[in-house]
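Problem: given the chain below (113 residues), write out its structure.
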Amino acid sequence: MAPTMAVADPKSTAIKKKEEEELRKRNRELEKELKESREREEQMRKELQKIWERFSVAEEAEERLCSQLGDLEAESVNQARAYNAHIVSLMDQLSKANVLVKNHRSPVPISIL
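Solution.
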């Protein structure tokens, strides 16, 4: 057999060029979408980092507030105990004064202070 030469069909060459151009166009679109997606991802990553930092600050503030609340609760318990002791002391003084008044038979007023 004799060697044959492949003759390019102008119609098939035009179709192939059109397909190549469509593929190139689609490739550019996909690359653009990928770039935009990566930019959005980076923006979301930065936003997440900011949110995480705000969360950390809020968590530290909560810990400080809990500590301060504990201190205030302890102080209020101490104040309540001191107030209660003062009331008991005043009741004791009043009781002693009542005993003095009941036992005093003189028409002259007495001073308990």
